[in-house]
Design brief:
The chain has 337 residues and is α+β, with helices and mostly antiparallel strands. The protein has two domains: 6-132, Heat Shock Protein 90 (2-Layer Sandwich), CATH 3.30.565; 145-335, Phosphatase 2c, domain 1. It has seven helices and 15 strands. A five-stranded antiparallel β-sheet has the order 1-2-3-5-4, with helices on both faces. It has a five-stranded antiparallel β-sheet with strand order 6-15-14-11-12, with helices on one face. Strands 7-8-9-10-13 form a five-stranded antiparallel β-sheet, covered by helices on one side. Helix 1 runs antiparallel to helix 2 (34-55), helix 2 (34-55) runs antiparallel to helix 4 (105-111) and helix 5 packs across helix 6 (206-216). It is globular and about 55 Å long. The two termini are 31 Å apart.
Length: 337
């Protein structure tokens, strides 16, 4: 079980049956109970079937993974249709029109541990659902930061050359995002070893952590990587990166973009590195992504998006800006202070 999503284009009813079967087998193999598996079957059926019926085509992303609350199943349904007219009405059980994803939205919300929908007229819809394996009436550990990510292989590859990790410390949270050079197994090996080094490193300085990772991955083809530390005690963001990982911090409608150093972790990094430091403010949003996503995007151009969950923001960025020619990853973290 890793962090990568399976991706399938849905074009007609035959694809729906295939995806439903694949997801059912995946959740059974991950140890979900028959009840939870049945609930997941309903969510998947509603999303995929209505996608074909009311939109015609779209993309399904799904995975099983683990976070601080345990093992979970997660699915996105992405389309570029006409959007959902009168979403609150469509959330009522049984409501449906040919202009929307239709009935089942209320059931999806009820059966999910977390769910969200973002839709705009003429733009389409991002629907997200997350269901935990062992939670019945879930009472989750409340973190000061809500983290979400979408990570997808380059088309045709069986492994992802991108990777991310989150590490909690006594006074804050560390975020890592890396992109192995190229794609395929060698890129995957480089970023996987970097994540292992990131997790095991006991240094607190981002510069020291990057130098440690650089030393540990020297026998690989190398990678680009950025580390962000959210210091909750000092109320600061610390950032340090090498290579083209894009990083932005949104405060309301304003954003600050971080410029990383030139170089390749594992091959050549600058002799002198320093951290950039930004002030922490309430309700800020951190966005990090690899060059598998186009860089010319602006969250403020999407009405109301910054008020949504990081899952919705990550799914929206992937939907609109994934190149489709490389490994793709985007990590979003929202401060809940």
């Amino acid at each position: 079980m890793d962090n990568t999503f399976y991706s399938y284009r849905i074009e007609d009813k035959s694809y729906v049956s295939f995806v439903k079967r694949e997801i059912h087998n995946l959740t059974v193999a991950a140890g979900f109970s028959s009840q939870k598996t049945g609930e997941i079957d309903i969510v998947v059926s509603e999303l995929a079937s209505n996608l074909v019926k009311f939109v015609g085509s779209g993309e399904i992303l799904y995975r099983t993974a683990t976070d601080t609350n345990g093992v979970f199943f997660e699915i996105y349904c992405l389309d570029k249709g006409q959007g959902i007219h009168n979403l609150p009405q469509m959330m009522r059980d049984g409501a449906s029109t040919s202009q929307t994803l239709g009935q089942g939205l209320g059931a999806i919300e009820r059966l999910s541990s977390e769910s969200s929908i973002y839709t705009l007229k003429g733009w389409g819809t991002v629907a997200h659902s997350k269901i935990y394996k062992d939670a019945q009436n879930e009472i989750f550990r409340k973190e000061p930061v809500h983290v979400a990510a979408v990570q997808v292989n380059m088309p045709g590859e069986s492994v992802c050359g991108d990777g991310y990790a989150v590490k909690y410390a006594n006074n804050g949270v560390y975020f890592f995002l890396g992109d192995g050079l190229g794609h395929g197994e060698h890129a995957h090996d480089a970023v996987a070893l970097a994540i292992t080094a990131f997790k095991e490193c006991r240094e607190k300085s981002l510069v020291a952590i990057l130098q440690y990772i650089h030393h540990e991955v020297k026998k690989t083809r190398g990678l680009v990587a950025t580390i962000v530390f959210l210091d909750l005690k000092a109320q600061k963001w610390h950032l340090c990166g090498i290579g083209n990982i894009a990083t932005s911090i949104y405060t309301g409608l304003e954003s600050k973009n971080y410029t990383p150093y030139n170089g390749i972790v594992g091959l050549n990094i600058p002799r002198t590195l320093t951290e950039s430091v930004f002030e922490l403010n309430k309700y800020q949003t951190l966005v990090m992504h690899s060059d598998g996503l186009r860089g010319r995007w602006n969250l403020t151009g999407m009405p109301g998006l910054l008020k949504h969950s990081p899952n919705t923001i990550a799914g929206t960025l992937y939907k609109d800006h994934a190149r489709g020619t490389d490994d793709m990853s985007v990590l979003v973290a929202k401060v809940n202070l």
